[in-house]
Amino acid sequence: MSRIAVGEATALADSRIGTERVGARAWQTLPMYTVPHRIETSRLVIRRYEETDAQQLVDVVVRNMDHLRRYMEWIAFEPQTLEQRREFIASTNAAFDSGKDYTLGMFDLDGVLVGGTGFHVRTRPERLEIGYWIDELREGQGLVTEAAAALTRVGLTFTGATLMDISHAASNARSAAVPRRLGFAPHDAGGPEVFDDGNKVARTSWWATRDTLGGEAFDAHPYPRVFDSTNTELTWP
């Protein structure tokens, strides 16, 4: 079973499948979150996509189409061409710069793409939702948990957000294990339905704040290193 949260981070930038739709005027009133350009953990580099990543995106997504199909509605638009992936990268980076969505790739320390992640801007209440997917070849190695822990620390300590969200289809046990392991609390948030094997179903959500997080499992993940677009390491607040 795929380990994929509903806020998938490499979906087509203009599809926004399974996400809350925010009008153009509403974006002007939302906070601009301070999201680093790159985040480094002990085994991962989590960063904005660059144009040179397009071929890796083509290869990894095509190889994982069957793996991702159940929970990722955007697989219906695959496979994408190299040029379409370049357009996707440009579009997601524009959304990042405007504060509408924060798409990040997950790479190992050798620069190999292993999955996608990022922050999706949510409202009612204002919060950041962590989305993730992982290459089937790298599943079961704890990389998703490591990435989600890093993004949770960044989200609650660095970005200015006060509430984090991870949501998924109820049947996605692998995805559910991540927020449960990190100490997120179940929350009946409602909101848009999510995709599950061709059907739209109610979402299962987990929320966390700085006050509710803690415990041995989460504390085992140290603060990651964070960098801006000039490759300057940033100081934690």
The profile of the biggest β sheet is: 9 strands, mixed
What number of structural domains do the residues give? 1
Portion of residues in helices? 25-40%
Total count of strands: 11
> Averaged pLDDT, please?
89
The CATH topology name reads Aminopeptidase
CATH 4th-level superfamily: Gcn5-related N-acetyltransferase (GNAT)
Strand order of the largest sheet: 7-10-6-5-4-3-2-1-11
CATH architecture designation: 3-Layer(aba) Sandwich
Task: Kindly summarize this structure in a few lines.
The chain has 237 residues and is α+β, with helices and mostly antiparallel strands. The protein is built from seven helices and eleven strands.
Give an account of the 3D structure.
This protein has a single domain, classed as Aminopeptidase. The protein is 27% helix and 24% strand. It is built from seven helices and eleven strands. Strands 7-10-6-5-4-3-2-1-11 form a nine-stranded mixed sheet, with helices on both faces. Strands 8-9 form a two-stranded antiparallel sheet. A hairpin with a 4-residue loop joins strand 3 (101-108) and strand 4 (113-122). The protein is globular and about 45 Å long. Mean pLDDT is 89; it is low at 8-21.
